[in-house]
Amino acid sequence: MKPFTYLQATDVPSALRAISSSPDARFIGGGTNLVDLMKYGVEQPAHLIDIGKLPLANIEPLPGGGVRIGALARNSDIANHLLIREKAPLLAEAIVAGASPQLRNAATAGGNLMQRTRCYYFYDTGFTQCNKRIPGSGCAARDGLNRIHAILGTSDKCIATNPSDMSVALAAIGATVQVQGNSGPRSIPFADFHRLPGETPQIDTNLNKEELITAIDVPGFPFALNYCYLKVRDRRSYAFALVSVAAMIDVRAGKIHDVRFALGGVAPKPWRVPAAEQQVIGQEPGAEAYGNAADVALKGARTFPHNAFKLELARRSIIRALTTAAVKGERNGNVG
Amino acid sequence: METSVSQPINRVDGPLKVTGRALYTAEHPVPNVAHAVLIMSTIPKGRAASMDTSAAGKSPGVLRVFTPFNAPKLPPSPSGGSPTSRKLNLLQDDQILYSNQPIGLVLADTFENATRGAELVHIRYAPQPFNVVLDKDLNSAFTPEKAGAGGDPANSSRGDHQAGVAAAAAYSEHLYTTPIQTHNPMEPHATIAVWEGSKLTLYDATQGVFSDRQRVAQVLGIPPEDVRVISPYIGGGFGSKGPTWSHVVLAAVAARELNRPVKLVLTREQMFGAIGFRGRTHQTVGLGSSSQGNLTAIRHDTIDQTSSFDQFVEPCGLQARMLYPSPNAHTTHKLVRLDLGTPSFMRAPGECPGNYALECAMDELSYSLKLDPLALRLKNYAEEDPEKKRPWSSKSLRECYRAGAERFGWSKRNPAVRATPEGHYLVGQGMATACYPARRSESNAIATLRPDGTALVEAGTQDLGTGTYTIMTQIAADAIGLAPNQVTFRLGDTDFPKTPVSGGSQTAASTGSAVKMAGQALREKLIQLAVTDPASPLHGLGAGDVTIDGGNFVSAANPRKKESLAALMARHGQNEVSATADAKPGDEQDRYSMYAFGAQFAEVRVDMDLGEIQVSRMVGAFAAGRILNTKTARSQLMGGMVWGIGMALQENTMVDPRRGRVVNANLAEYHVPVNRDVPAIEVILVHEDDPYVSAVGAKGIGEIGNTGSAAAIVNAIYHATGKRVRDLPVTLDRLI
Ligand SMILES: Cc1cc2nc3c(=O)[nH]c(=O)nc-3n(C[C@H](O)[C@H](O)[C@H](O)COP(=O)(O)OP(=O)(O)OC[C@H]3O[C@@H](n4cnc5c(N)ncnc54)[C@H](O)[C@@H]3O)c2cc1C
Ligand code: SF4
């Protein structure tokens, strides 16, 4: 690991000043991703700015029924918080589907959003080709072991997935990321937070390097309780998703009144296609409608030698997740 | 009197372990220790053309950097070929024979500084063409001299295969494959080397302190007496700590050069390649039978991998020779050389993957005959070893089948395939036979009575976390006539009496027998002292008329006539009384075939849309001679069954064929079962008396648990879904 300096930031302005002082400075939250990457030599920051003590760990109600999650709230604390359980149980379920209790106790909300891909070739510096790690070096995964890789939103430069479970729920819910830079705060709609690789796979998000995530705003939803987070994986816990679906559905008078869903494990960012949701509004709930939605959401998918199964798996997962959410809705009396 | 043996007493080392006071290898406090970090190759074949160490040498805290260009030259040593004397990579030349091979060593004042130093060494490679894919090179397969460490011949033929096929109402052959699997014990391999003059002390995470000493001495060219190996606690080994690997010798060499103790701990990533693994196997199993299900032909042809520079055979075909009494049975073993590290023993080497293929083939046969899978096994029950034509020393497999089937509810199973849906799930049940040879080697022990009447018992042996401390304490307590809490057992030190490697499930039978005999010898000595001591109430009695029970001499005729051992010791002015034993296997090994047997049953629920597989129930019934502690035995067997879940569904060391590198060399991506994958598991210990197998009457139980469990699960998946997957692991994409 490359030697680095360490600074414990005490307030947001000093953290921002520190991050701007060097291009090789990085924030560190729980450190569960960054430290691993440093050990592997994938990230080599010269300066670590520990934001763990910043007063940004609160979880509090927003006017209008939403919830504001401080960027430093621990994943476990978010998942266990009464407000989240009540207002956004989909988010709680997505968080506990990820990692392990020990990791969730350490991981922060901001860090979770910023975690990097689990592509094998990105992690192992023994492989010389990885455009995300070394821009312009090529992509070892395209002709390599790509069973866990993306089928949507890829580019010739990179086919890696975003591994976060929490982000899939936030995409479905339509959260807003609050950030603070030296020139002031701004809000980033969740759909615009993560980027597709295009020609620049080394850049994962639209957060500027000198900006700090301060909070995530989760809007209130009338049908937040009719939800399902389905995570399909190679073992029953402590494994990243092959495919995941975050779904919420509102059925009224036997018709789909509103629906939200996003996919994980299949794309470089949480994959939400609003047109797929629109497609089925007004239809009768059921496998047929959900299948139609899936077809729209998965349009343009492109598979690779080892991951062709993901396309059909994603389709079936969407149907299963929406079905489960709808069943929950029925039990809730379909009134959110 | 046996009062302690077989009781489910708690692990005697449990409190030390859960309070963190049990010192594992890397935790031994050694003053002034320097930290060593290995540099590993990133290409699979070629040469290290140059290694620039200038930046590393200047990096803070770095003491020395060893590369093939400056490492001390070692005397040529007889190297390789045998499983405990692997060919090592000791920086003696610039050859690179596999990716993740040690090619350098950095020493520094701290682990962090050594790690940084290792990163700063710049290597220029001269790569050469290579192959890491077994299936690409099957034509180059050659026949090794032997099938495995047991010395069995590589090929066997019983009867006439063609005749057996001709006599069969049905004959079918299928290819089964298992992937490279990596041991992944929780404790990484670690060595601390300390020289005092010409004497070397090694704290080493090893499954064999004596074989380790022998090999290190041999490679360094020093007398074995000059090497002491200490290994009191081991955090799992599964075979990977059986042989002595390169890092052990490198630590010793570095400590000698530096004139300072050296600690070397492998990282998880470094544990994928240089310390063995189970190679990929490619097994063709053919079974022919009469329409009633009597086997007429068995064929089991194995091709697996070895390295370009050394040899290891995964002897998959051995069970096909002895498990079922087909008049015709043929097995072969072949090897392909790949540019990967040398494979090695992994829990039930040969039996585990071999039994997987054979027991799946039996399952396939049962369906094609429309016979119950269990009934097919019972039809082909071997009353004697069909290959060696010898009686079994004991065999209670029929009772294992019965007890396991009853507990599992096998008779209630719907024989039809893909016929039991439950919600989104397809439910299925499968079974398989489990089997593992009962091995034993020469072992020694010493038992000493201390002045306070308690005993100290010592043997070099190892405890991998399995319970050796506990069962040896129990055996010694019974043999001497003490309660377990009056016995202290010490192990893991070459200063103690010589014992074999803890591998092949032989520790209980080998060292257990030595401990029992040493304890009995001590007891006889003590009784002799008592009956010849005029001051003892037992004076004048015949030695046979006195027993020792709970720390007292007792007259058999008059239990009120007794005296404590401590009282005798005090009177005798003797500090200690000791007795040793050398326990050797006799000719029983030539007269009997000795195996532990078992029956495994599994139920799975497969998500019919998503393919996710959940093992929902497992029952294993095992007969393994005398069970020395029903609690530790149960845990061992259960651990083996859990292993079967990983093997069936998850474990897979993935090698990128273009670069020859393992891509999932970490515990996040190399999957082993987590709690949620493991259902309630029932272990049935079937009573079995075996008068021949060992002085303690025990067969090994360390490995049998992971024979048959993977097959039972894969067979259950077939029953649930109607899909026969023959290539492990069965991941969900194979089922959708
Ligand atoms: C073995 C393992 C298994 C896992 N399994 C899963 C899983 O199944 N599902 C899943 O979703 N996740 C999983 N994870 C990932 C885990 O969720 C992330 O590591 C964690 O959420 C990262 O949070 P952190 O606070 O530790 O981030 P850090 O490691 O501290 O930081 C990660 C990145 O975020 C940046 N950063 C952190 N906070 C901020 C901020 N406030 N503003 C701007 N930038 C910031 C850092 O600079 C860094 O680049 C797993 C991790 C491991 C190690
Ligand atoms: S998929 Fe992306 S992260 Fe993986 S090797 Fe290719 S460029 Fe690198």
Give a concise summary.
The complex is a heterodimer of chains A (336) and B (736). Chain A is built from twelve helices and eleven strands.
Walk me through this protein's architecture.
The complex is a heterodimer of chains A (336) and B (736). Chain A is α+β, with helices and mostly antiparallel strands and 336 residues long. Among the domains of chain A are: 1-52, 2-Layer Sandwich (Uridine Diphospho-n-acetylenolpyruvylglucosamine Reductase, domain 2), CATH 3.30.43.10; 227-330, CO dehydrogenase flavoprotein, C-terminal domain (Enolase-like, domain 1, 2-Layer Sandwich). Chain A has helices at residues 12-20, 34-39, 75-80, 82-87, 89-96, 101-106, 109-114, 120-123, 166-173, 274-280, 287-297, 309-331; strands at residues 5-8, 25-28, 47-50, 59-61, 67-70, 176-181, 184-189, 212-218, 227-232, 243-252, 255-264. Chain A has a five-stranded antiparallel beta sheet with strand order 4-5-8-6-7. Chain A has a three-stranded parallel beta sheet with strand order 1-3-2, covered by helices on one side. Chain A starts with a strand and ends in a 5-residue tail after the last helix. Chain B has 736 residues and is of the alpha+beta class. Chain B folds into four domains: 25-129 and 186-236 and 241-271, Aldehyde oxidase/xanthine dehydrogenase, molybdopterin binding domain (Aldehyde Oxidoreductase, domain 4), CATH 3.30.365; 131-180 and 284-347 and 354-370, 2-Layer Sandwich (Aldehyde Oxidoreductase, domain 4), CATH 3.30.365.10; 390-440 and 589-736, Aldehyde Oxidoreductase, domain 4 (2-Layer Sandwich), CATH 3.30.365.10; 441-584, Aldehyde Oxidoreductase, domain 4. Chain B is 24% helix and 25% strand. Chain B has 16 helices and 31 strands. In chain B, strands 3-5-1-14-11-12-13 form a seven-stranded mixed beta sheet, sandwiched between helices. In chain B, α8 (351-369) packs across α9 and α11 (468-480) packs parallel to α12 (507-531). The longest helix of chain B has 25 residues, at 507-531. The model of chain B has no long low-confidence stretch (mean pLDDT 96). The A-B interface holds A 1-3, 41, 118, 120-121, 124, 126-127, 140, 143-145, 147, 232-239, 242, 309, 312-313, 316-317, 319-320 and B 42, 60, 99, 112, 115-116, 119, 424, 609-612, 614, 649-650, 654, 656, 658-659, 661, 663-665, 668-669, 671, 673-677, 731-733, 736.
